[in-house]
Each structure stands twice: as structure tokens, then as C-alpha cells.
Design brief:
Blueprint (H helix, E strand, L loop, with lengths): L1 H4 L4 H22 E9 L3 H12 L8 E5 L17 E4 L1 H9 L2 H8 L2 E3 L1 E6 L5 E5 L8 E5 H13 L5 E5 L3 E5 L16 E5 L4 E9 L6 H5 L4 E18 L6 E7 L2 E7 L4 E8 L1 H9 L2 H13 L6 H17 L12 E5 L5 E10 L3 E2 L2 E3 L5 E2 L7 H21 L7 H28 L5 H16 L1 H12 L1
Length: 471
């Protein structure tokens, strides 16, 4: 009777909380499911990861789940207009796509080979060129992001018995052993727990974060991150070009405000990636089409930044190089003339460097932009992400083959070591180039001009650069 009268009986409240807690646990336990691998993020890199795991022989009996927040596209229609978001696919990425059957899908849609590349700057006449003859195959392929993703998804759809794709589903929260508050002391053999936005609870031996530069997986795992805002934006657009019957050259010119690049999409169209200040980016996006075309042509052709002193010295230095290296003939090509821009194709996005100090923690691995996001001046960002896919899928198969589980920290650490050895030199090189070319100070211009000329003359150095970019 007393309990009916006392509204705040401690014993009753405690009993009620216990009952509710047990009921809640029963509800969660009924909806709990277990998986060997969960991939969070179904972009190009995350979907490629799922596809690679589905093709791995030693992972055939493993349960793999891909969480993708976007809805499933039942049909894909290739637009006649080219997208303004593209990737420069390296030979190593082509090999990955071939191994999962996606390359044939891409070839059936569209892509454009890059057979030559010319890089030069506006403050001097120095340049460097790369030719496909030096590799005995194409330097790269320019492929639209939508085409890459569709090709991989088509291959993934054939692996439905091995990989479960959950569209319109994302992770709401994670409990990561040793990282989540309240679970710092949990043994690393404890599985990762994921609660989805659908209310499902998934426990997994390995969580792979492929959820981009603002990765929730990275935050949940409390990974230390180095970030650098470049205070720049990349303006992208689809350009119509003329003056070429074989548009297979990638052009990049370094301006004091940032590099401007034109990548071939077909014999008539190219993709523009122009790095500049946020103010200039807004100005370029607001221009009338004809004025924008004039601005692009001016960026590739103007000579008002030329430093006469540096130009004079670099000419003399080039004569010396020609004398020492008799086969060193610098062949300068002129870029095609831009005659139009596709309506609505102009856009911009901010540029920054994001690099996680670690790529793995107990039962967690980061890939793609979740682990490293770079400045686009070398076009290596997505290739590094696909390199993560190749490496991690291979080491996970080795783990299972050796009798370990897929969340083995030993094999995850091997992945981190191997990938950081490949990624860090690229990150530091691109970061350094950004600052080296972001000035028109004469001594710096002279230094970089002579360096570029020397690199172009030394074939073995160029070959090393090509090998590194193709790896």
C-alpha cells in the first residue's frame, strides 16, 4: 500500500529501471546480427572494397555487409554530356578494376587514355613532359566518377550471395573496443558494435571506414588527424576544345595562385580543374560563358607572369643541358583552344589536406579519404584509395588463409605499414609542391625552374616519377 502512495519509492524505481533495462537488452539481442566485415560508405573506394572482398577466394564463406546511405539506382543511363567530376586512373588502378571485372564495364561506357602530359609554369619557360612511350602503355585514363561507380556496382550486383549491400542505410553510432567512452578498457578481441539508422545492431570482427574525409568511423575510433586548410578552391567544368584531332594530352600549368589543368574526356571535350582563391573561384563561376572561356584560354596562354631574369637564366641553362644530354630535345606543345563550356557544368569545392596518423586500430581500418585526402594537383588521391583496397583485401585474405580472423591486428598493422610507406611520400611531395609553386618570388621561381628543367633532362628520374605515379 505504501508503494502506491509514495510516488518516488526508491525500491520501485530501481525495480522499474532493471526491468526496462532487461527488456531493452532483449529487444537489442533479438535484433543483433553478426558479420565478419562491415564497410561503412559506398562511394567509389568503399564499393570497390566490397567488390574486391567478394572476389577473394579465402573470404568466400565470410559475411560482408556494405552500408550505403544513398538509394539504389535500378537503372543507369549514361548522359550524352560529360560529368565535371572525373578521376585520372593510374595503371595500378586499372589492374585492380580488371581483377574485379569492372574495367570491361568502363570500356563499354567511356574513358579517354592519356598518352602524353605537359607541365609548365607561367613565371618561366621551364617545362616537363611525360610520354606513353616511356611506359610502353598509356600514362592514365580519364574516367568520370559516375562511370567508375556504376561499373563497380554492376560487378558487385553479381556477388549478392557473398556481399550484402544495404542501400539507404548508414551507421548511427559505433562502439569501438578501446576507443568509445566507457569501453576504453575492453579487450581488443571484443567485436565492434554498430547501430544503424534503421535501429539494427550489427556486431562485426572488422569495421572498414570508407566514409570520406569527414569520416564518422575515424572519429569514433579516436584517430589522430593532421589537417591543413589550403584556403583554396578547385573550379571544375566541362570544356569544348578545338584544334586537335587526337585529344590525349593532359595539360597542367602552374600559376602563382595555383595550378590549372585540362584533362581529355574525348576528342572534343576536356575537364577543367582550376585551383585558385575562394574569391577568384566565385568570380569564375559567376562569369558569362563566353567570358569564362576567355578566362580559361588566358590562364593557359598568357605571358604576363614571366620573370625576364629567370627566363634568361633558364634559357642558358637549357642550352647547357642540350649540350650535355644530346638526346634531350624539349618539345613544347601548345594546348588546344577552348571554344565552349557545358551549361551548368561549373562548380567548385574547397581544398585541404587530411591525413590520419594511423590507418588502423583494433578491429578498425580506414581506407580512401577517411585515411588520407590530398590536394588534387597530381591527381593521385583516388588512386591511393584504390591502392588501399588492393592492399587490404590481399592482407585480409592472407589472414584467413593463415588461420587468423579478419580483424587480426597483426595483419591490420601490416596494411598500415605498407600503405603509409606508399602514401606519405606522395602526401609530402604534393604538400611541398603546393607551397613551392604558390609564389612568384624570383629566387624561388629560379630554383624551381632549374629543377624542372633538370628533371626533364634526366630520363631515369622521370622514369622513377612515372613508376611512383603508376604504383
Amino acid at each position: 500500500m505504501a508503494c502506491k502512495i509514495l510516488k518516488h519509492c526508491k525500491l520501485c524505481n530501481l525495480t522499474s529501471r532493471i526491468v526496462n533495462s532487461l527488456a531493452s537488452r532483449n529487444i537489442h539481442s533479438n535484433s543483433n546480427e553478426k558479420a565478419d566485415i562491415v564497410i561503412s560508405g559506398g562511394g567509389m573506394v568503399g564499393t570497390a572494397m566490397a567488390c574486391a572482398l567478394g572476389h577473394a577466394d579465402f573470404l568466400q564463406d565470410k559475411k560482408v555487409i556494405l552500408l550505403e546511405s544513398a538509394p539504389e539506382k535500378k537503372t543507369f543511363k549514361l548522359s550524352e554530356r560529360f560529368s565535371n567530376r572525373t578521376c585520372a586512373i593510374s595503371p595500378s588502378t586499372v589492374s585492380l578494376f580488371q581483377s574485379i571485372g569492372a574495367w570491361d564495364e568502363i570500356l563499354q561506357m567511356r574513358c579517354q587514355p592519356v598518352k602524353r602530359m605537359q607541365v609548365w609554369e607561367s613565371c618561366s619557360d621551364s617545362l616537363i613532359t611525360f610520354n606513353d612511350e616511356e611506359l610502353m602503355n598509356d600514362l592514365a585514363y580519364i574516367v568520370e566518377n559516375d562511370v567508375i561507380l556504376e561499373a563497380i556496382r554492376r560487378r558487385l550486383s553479381t556477388l549478392s550471395e557473398k556481399v550484402e549491400v544495404r542501400y539507404q542505410t548508414s551507421a548511427k553510432s559505433y562502439i569501438v573496443p578501446g576507443s568509445t567512452p566507457g569501453h576504453e578498457g575492453v579487450d581488443q578481441n571484443t567485436w565492434v558494435t554498430i547501430e544503424t539508422d534503421k535501429g539494427n545492431i550489427i556486431q562485426t570482427k572488422l569495421l572498414i571506414g570508407a566514409d570520406g574525409m569527414n569520416s564518422a568511423v575515424r572519429k569514433a575510433g579516436k584517430f589522430h588527424v593532421f589537417q591543413q586548410d589550403y584556403q583554396q578552391q578547385a573550379v571544375v567544368a566541362t570544356l569544348e576544345v578545338s584544334g586537335t584531332s587526337d585529344n590525349s594530352v593532359a595539360w597542367q600549368r602552374f600559376l602563382p595562385t595555383g595550378p590549372v589543368a585540362m584533362l581529355p574526356l574525348s576528342n572534343q571535350y576536356s575537364c577543367l580543374i582550376w585551383t585558385t582563391s575562394p574569391t577568384k573561384a566565385k568570380y569564375l563561376k559567376d562569369l558569362e560563358d563566353d567570358s569564362f572561356v576567355d578566362a580559361v584560354n588566358d590562364a593557359f596562354w598568357h605571358e604576363r607572369d614571366l620573370d625576364s631574369t629567370v627566363t634568361s637564366i633558364s634559357h642558358k641553362y637549357q642550352q647547357l643541358l642540350n649540350y650535355v644530354f644530346t638526346d634531350n630535345q624539349v618539345v613544347r606543345q601548345l594546348p588546344p583552344t577552348v571554344v565552349g563550356v557545358d551549361p551548368g557544368s561549373r562548380a567548385s569545392f574547397p581544398l585541404s589536406l587530411v591525413h590520419s596518423s594511423n590507418y588502423v586500430k583494433p578491429r578498425v581500418a580506414l581506407i580512401g579519404d577517411a585515411a588520407h585526402r590530398l590536394h588534387p594537383l597530381a591527381g593521385q588521391g583516388v588512386n591511393l584509395g584504390f591502392g588501399d583496397v588492393s592492399c587490404l583485401s590481399r592482407l585480409l585474405a592472407e589472414a584467413v588463409q593463415s588461420g587468423s580472423d579478419v580483424g587480426s591486428l597483426y595483419y591490420l598493422t601490416k596494411y598500415e605499414t605498407e600503405r603509409q610507406r606508399a602514401v606519405l611520400p606522395v602526401v609530402m611531395t604534393i604538400h611541398g609542391l603546393h607551397y613551392l609553386y604558390n609564389t612568384d618570388f624570383s629566387p624561388v621561381v629560379l630554383l624551381r625552374s632549374l629543377g624542372l628543367q633538370s628533371t626533364n633532362a634526366l630520363q631515369f628520374v622521370k622514369n622513377k616519377i612515372i613508376q611512383q605515379a603508376s604504383a
